[in-house]
Amino acid sequence: MTEGQRILYIRKLIKKNQQEFAQLLSVSQAALSDIENGKNGISYPVFRKLVEEIGVHPYWFMWGQDPIFREIHYADKYNISYNPASPTEGASASPAHKSPTSKDPHFTMEEVMKALSDLQGEVNKIKRKAKKHEK
Length: 135
What we know:
Number of helices: 7
Structural class: mainly alpha
Order of helices and strands: HHHHHHH
Shape: globular
Helix content: 55-70%
């Protein structure tokens, strides 16, 4: 599933039209449409809104790893059943790995989200380059 497909999936899951969901993300309806259709990737502020305000779990958004919502109260907010069990239960799913130069192995959610956003930005750059070379 692409990030645009995941955005669309979340929007439909919480029963919002494009205009309503765009307002939640603080983007225009046209910008949301472009994201959902794969014309544009998402920015860090949009990713942050998805995670912090809508409650989407960053692991689900980036890699499809369950659960979809970070905490049960977000699922309750949208009247959606919440399944905290992950198909990869028992596997290591730490938010970030300690880098060899890091002295503190603890990371804030903001640091994890920034790293994930940076990674997604790099993936989007590679995709755009590949599309240019196809033409």
